[in-house]
Amino acid sequence: MTVEAAADWPPIPEPEEPAPEALESDVEELEAEEPAAPLPASVVDAPAEDLPVRGGVLLDALAGLLRRWKARGGGDDADLLEEQRREEMRSQLESEAWFYMERMLAVSKRMDYLCYRYKRSEKDMFNSGVSTIAFSDVVLQPEAIYLRVDTLRLPRNVSVNALKEEETLFNMSMACRHKVLAEHEEGKGFWYIIERSSGTRGIPIHVRLDEMWSMRGPTHDGLAIPFGIGENKKPVWRSLSQMVSLLVAGAPGSGKSNMLNVALCTWIRFNAPHRLKLALVDMKGGMEFGPYAEVPHLMRYRPLPHKKDEPLEPPDDESAPAEQEASLIAGSDADQSDEDDMLPALVERREDVLPLLRAIYKEGRRRIRLLRQAGERSVGNYNWKHPKRSLPHLVVMIDELAELRMLTPAEYEKVMKLLTSIAQLFRAVGVHIVPATQTVVKQVISLSVRNAIPGRLAFGCPSVIASSLVIGNGAAAGLSPAGRAILDYNGKQTMLQTPLIPDRLVEKVIEGAIRGEYEEYELKRHDVTEADVFRVALEEFGGKLPPDELYRWFNNKGRHIPRQEVREIVTRYLGQEVPLGGSIYRVVQGKGGRPPYLETTEEQKS
After folding, report:
1. pTM above 0.70, yes or no
2. What range defines the domain where residue 543 resides?
3. Cα–Cα distance measured from residue 231 to residue 174, given in angstroms and rounded to the nearest whole number
4. Backbone CA torsion sign across 451, 235, 431, 515
5. Which of 39, 110, 509, 511 is 20 to 30 A from 76, alpha carbon to alpha carbon?
6. Burial of 479 by CB count in 10 Å (0-12 exposed, 13-18 middle, 19+ buried)?
7. Same domain as 578, residue 540
C-alpha cells in the first residue's frame, strides 16, 4: 500500500505486517513504540481552525519569515533560540504523526470492514494481499494532529461511515493511546484528529479546583458546580437548581469519586447550613463520605421504616396544615423541638437507605402542600416571599449505586422505585438526587432512572454499550485522560476536563465549615415567572423572544433572573401555546438566525 505524504515530507514507508501475537496485544506493542513526550503547547502558535491546511505549511512559513528577517540583519540570540525550538517542535510532531499513521494503518489491516483482502495471483490459495485506507494530508498543531483520509482511494467495500463508527474510533484510540476523533464535512474531507497532551480544541489535561473557584461569576448560585474546562479553554459551570438531579458514572479510576468531592466542597464552601442540607449514602463503608460526618450542612432526619402492610410512599398527613406538620427532616421551616432523636444523614448500611428515602419522600410531599397553600410553584419563589421560613435545598448523594443490588430483589426494587419517584416529583420543591456508580450496566442504570435525571456526567466507560447507557451514545467509551468527561444536559453534550481536588483542600473546606468559616453565597432569588417573560416579550419586544435582550430588560429593572434561565424558558416552550391577556399564543422558532416569537393561534386569527 502507498500512502501519499504531505508537502515536504519524505515518503512514509509501508508498515510491516504485524504478527498475530502483536495484534492481540496492542498495549504491549505501544509501550515499546511510545513517542517522546510532546513539547509545551506554547512553542508554536496554533493555525486557524479552518481545514484543510497541508502538513507543515504553517511551520514552514514561520521558519521562512524568521530566516528572511535574519538575512536582513534582524533578530538576536533569542530569535535563534525561538527558531530552534520551533524546529524541535516540528521534528517532534512529524515523529508523532508517523507513529500514529502506522498504528492506525495496523488497525485498518486488522479490521475486516476497514480493508479489502485479495489474492495476489491465481496460484494463491489464500487472500494474501491487503488494501487499507490511505492518508493524503497532515496538519501539525501543538494540541492535536490531523490526518486526512483519502476518500477517493478507499479500499473496495469500505465506506466513509465505517471510518467514523464508534467501534472504529475506540480501536484507533486504544492503538494510538490518545483520544481519536473524526470530522467529516463536505468540501473539507474526512479527518482523524489525535489529541496530544494539551487536548484538542483547547481542552487541558489538568484543571485545578481553586482556579475554577476563582472563575466563579456573579450569576452562579449556591448550587452551581464547577464541572471543568471545555473547548477553547472555556470554564463550564452548571447549577443543580436548573439541572435538578445529576447522574455520575464512569469506570474505576476515571475521576468519578473526585468529582463528587468537588461538588460537595463547592456547595459547603458557598452555602450557609440553613440554605443547604446534604444526605450522603456511602456504600463504600464510609471511605468516601466519612470525612463529612461533622459538617453542619449534614442533614438530620428521623428514619421512616417500611412496614409490611404500609404503602411504599408515605401518605400525606391531612390532619393539620403543612406548616404545622411535624417534619422528619431537621433544619426545615417546621418546628423541630425534638431534634435530638434525629440521626445524621450519613448512611453506610444498605438496610438504612429505604428508611432515609421514605423520610425524604414524606418531606417532599409536605413541601408540595406547603407551596400549594402559599400559592407558589417553586421553592425559589417561596423562599423569596417567606425568608423567615425558607426551605433549604436537600441534596441526596449516593455512592456506590450498584452496591444496593446486594439487597433482596424486593427491597432493591423498592429503593429504586422510591429514588425515581423523588427525582421526578420533587423538582420544584428543592429536592435533588445525585447517584453515582462505577458499574455501568443496565441493571444499575435502568431506563427509568436515566429518564428521571436530566443531567448526566459520563467519565471514561469500559465499552460503547456502557457509554450509551449514560449519555445515549458511545462518546465516553475509552475516554482519557483521567478526569475527562462528557456532560449531557438540556440536549447538549460538552466534553471537558474536570477539576482535581487534593485531599488537603477537602480537609481545609471541612475544617472551615466546622468552625463556621464558609463563604455564604446568596442563592439568586427572583420573582420573574414564565408568564412575565412572555408578557414582556409581547409588550416590549413586539412579540419577539430574544433571550439575551429579555435577560437585560429584567436585570435593568432589578429583577435578577439568570440569563440561562431565560434561555431555558424560551427553549422549553418552543411549539407550545401560552395564554396572555385572554388570548392564546404559540411560541414559534425564528428562521434565518432570528429569535423565536409569539404568534396568535389559528383559533384567535379566525
Report:
1. no
2. 530-605
3. 22
4. positive
5. 39
6. buried
7. yes
